Amino acid sequence: MNAFGQVLRAEFTKFRTVRGWVVAAVAAAGATILLGLLPGMQGSCGRNGPGSECAPTLGPGGEVVVDSFAFAHRPLTGDGSITVRVTSLTSRLLDPGPDGPPPDDGSPHEASAREAATPGASPRGSRPAVVPWSKAGLILKAGTAQSSSYAAVLVTGGHGVRMQYDYTHDRAGTPGTVSTDSPRWLRLTRTGDTVAGAESPDGTTWTTVGSVRLAGLPPTVEAGLFTTSPQHAERVGGSLGAGTTGGPTEATGTFDHLLVRDEARSAGAPGQVARPAWEGENVGMPGPAPQVPGGDLERAGGVFTVTGSGDIAPAVAGAAGIGVSLARTLAGTFVMLLVVTVVSTGFITAEYRCGLIRTTLTASPRRGRLLAAKAVVVGAVAFVTGLVAAAVAVVLGQRVLRGNGVYVHPATTPTELRVIVGTAALLAVAAVLALGLGTLLRRGVTAVATAVAVIVLPYLLAMTVLPDGAARWLLRVSPAAAFALQQTATQYPQVANLYTPANGYFPLAPWAGFGVLAGWAALALGTAAVLLRRRSA
Amino acid sequence: MITVHGLRKRFRGTVALDGMTFAVRPGQVTGFVGPNGAGKSTTMRVILGLDRADAGDALIDGHPYRGLRDPLRHVGSLLDAAALQPGRTARNHLLWLAHSQGLTARRVDEVLDQAGLRAVARRRAGGFSLGMRQRLGIAAALLGDPPALLLDEPFNGMDPEGIVWMRRLLRALAAEGRAVLVSSHLMSELQETADHVVVVGRGKVIADAPVAHLLATAPGARRATLEDVYLALTRDEVEFRAVDPARAR
């Protein structure tokens, strides 16, 4: 065996012959697994019999999407266009009333053009609010089935005019909100596979917001008006234990000047065939559908309102989204991180306390080599225990969450592997950092306190009490940045949500975050090696 | 053979070593004596590469300690018997040391037997008496079957049986041709055990001679002990001296 191998073997023998360290490592892995498996979270998916499964469907791009909105539509065959004027978009927060059946259930004064987000719960307690990503506008969709391909041009509650298509794509138009004083004209034009969205302040001067090719759009699509309004969520902060609050919202869009140009029909037999019938439908949500007076909105020629709730967007995990991301199963990682930090620091400070360091250095006088061997040992121990714990927690934890009716966003196998191996690597490098700090500081209490403050505390603070900005800053610069390795969720600017670390959204890319931790570890271990060589033992 | 040549070292203005020079020859037990603060421990630490001297060198068969491959096969040492991790058993303590030198568990069992620790090999070192710790320290020093040994106060805390055992062991090690350096304050023990003494004071060597020679040339003639010789030699070197209780009366 070569010289380094001997030192390595000696240091590993040292580690495994102190029962407290071995027990701590195994217990920490067990605690992390338990925290991932304990039914701390309940959901309703699949809990209320068949049909209650929360199974967001896959959009055209293969990602999980939500697709629910109020839709007044008619078929449109071949090329054509649809134009409308939006004069208002208002939103309300719906108070999810826990108190029995609403008093107005089925009462006669239900507004005629209104349909509720939740059946039998309307009108219930609600208050006006600005929901920035509430949407009203025109949509052209492959069919009324959820998660089908679409293109839409729309006004929003706070982000101006947008053109959105196929769930993940978003283009900005003119900013500003709509009102009767400043209405917005919208138009969608289909030409073959291409759909163009345009807007106008007056119905005369048109600006193209975007033009997209939707491959595989069927010859006949459903075109019409839609309104939807996403879940609302906000942080409520106490001095300790900030939480989130939120609930469903609903929006009402007011439209007029509806005009559909149907090239196929006007070219074929003008005036011969009756216009296709309009239908009101709630896509992907329960409740009374938008009413279409006389089955023909175009002939009605007047003012329509469409009220809807939901979103047409990629599904996100978190407070305003649906379900949780994979990272939830690894919520107990911090226990291992804490134990790994304490044990790895103690792996060197115990030697200083007992005076054993002198025996160690007479046996292995090459100090840099010794420190490297110690780093390999604590790193390997942390990696292996972390790998086992993370693998079990991720695999079984998902099963438990789903069993509890919680929707867990699916992740690809490479992503799951990255999360599992990444968690192990995070613990391994944190162990090396802790060893470096222990070597620098030597005194057990000081070193452990410092190491915990540097390695574990930033993560706990960022996950719990800190406001978002501070939390994100900490997760950029502190060793806790490496928790980005557990990120599986994508952040979409056009989807309202609390993209907080606690919901599994980290400010850095996975391996960039790991790089921050690795940098800290390299710095600490490098400085420790220099000092160890210089100091007398 | 261990050679120490012209070692100098200062600790924040205090001179610890002031040109320390001597050699530890194979085949004999060399006593290393001197008052507290004379530089014995510092010298041993410099020999073992734990401290760096400002000047001079300490060599093991011509090589600095830090350059030795598997140093415990060249020099066995016992500096501080209390330096043990309490939770680790005696055998496991020796096992990691053995692994660091490429030695096997069989060698561990051999030295455990040699030190009379077989019965307590699997007990935690934290519960050991000082005497047992000394034996464990000796076992560690013997692990690499080294040609040279460096033992700091090995008689400390030993019961009478242990002292006899230690004395015999040191004689036997020297008889096997090893170079044995033993620092101690117990002059009577050294008189029985050592062939040669190096007396140091204030960081340098005061006397470096065979025990027999020192005793023969002592002024008190026939009945002189090593203790008398030592006290005479170090009269001016000690840092602290209490009033002689016999005279104070």
TrEMBL record, chain A:
**Domain of life, per lineage:** Bacteria
Q: Which Gene3D superfamilies match?
A: 2.60.120.200
The GO terms describing molecular function are:
ABC-type transporter activity
Q: What is this protein called?
A: ABC transporter
Region ranges (Disordered): 91-129
Q: Mind telling me which residue stretches traverse the membrane in this protein?
A: 21-41, 330-350, 371-397, 417-437, 444-466, 508-532
Query: Lineage of this protein's species?
Result: Bacteria, Bacillati, Actinomycetota, Actinomycetes, Frankiales
Q: Which UniProt keywords apply?
A: Membrane, Transmembrane, Transmembrane helix
Protein source organism: Parafrankia soli
Record's GO cellular component, any one?
Answer: plasma membrane
UniProtKB/TrEMBL annotation, chain B:
Q: Which UniProt keywords apply?
A: ATP-binding, Nucleotide-binding, Transport
Under the heading InterPro entries, the entry gives: AAA+_ATPase (IPR003593), ABC_transporter-like_ATP-bd (IPR003439), ABC_transporter-like_CS (IPR017871), P-loop_NTPase (IPR027417)
Presence of the UniProt keyword Transferase in the record: no
- Give the ABC transporter domain ranges: 2-227
What the entry lists under SMART domains is as follows: AAA
Quote one Gene Ontology molecular function term: ATP hydrolysis activity
Q: Which family does it belong to?
A: Belongs to the ABC transporter superfamily.
What name appears for this protein in its UniProt entry? Answer: ABC transporter
Organism of derivation: Parafrankia soli
Upper lineage is:
Bacteria, Bacillati, Actinomycetota, Actinomycetes, Frankiales
